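Tokens as discussed.
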């Protein structure tokens, strides 16, 4: 996801899933595959090194699990400081969030 309009649509129409320190927003998009957008605020990761570390972890996790995800637009937001969290903790939190989204999507498609 690149444009501000795509992010606005995701935030307005998407379903939210919280898994500290992340908020995952999933919305129907125009693409045929899952797409990722990042909203990593300086408020929670004031140093560029920290923001880049978090973004690298999110992108890599998304790359590895993209085929398993429903074809939606996903925006990952940072909602709490991550300085004290190690990379495995970040990945575990992301795994919980993706799992919950997959469960909710399967529930809504089966009903």
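Sequence:
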């Amino acid at each position: 996801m690149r444009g501000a309009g795509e992010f606005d649509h995701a935030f307005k129409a998407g379903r939210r899933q919280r898994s500290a320190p992340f908020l995952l927003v999933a919305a129907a998009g125009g693409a045929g595959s899952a797409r990722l957008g990042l909203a990593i605020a300086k408020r929670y990761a004031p140093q560029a090194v920290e923001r880049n570390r978090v973004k690298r972890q999110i992108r890599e996790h998304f790359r590895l699990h993209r085929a398993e995800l429903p074809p939606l637009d996903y925006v990952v937001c940072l909602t709490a400081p991550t300085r004290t969290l190690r990379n495995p903790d970040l990945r575990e939190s992301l795994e919980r969030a993706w799992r919950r989204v997959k469960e909710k999507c399967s529930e809504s498609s089966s009903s």
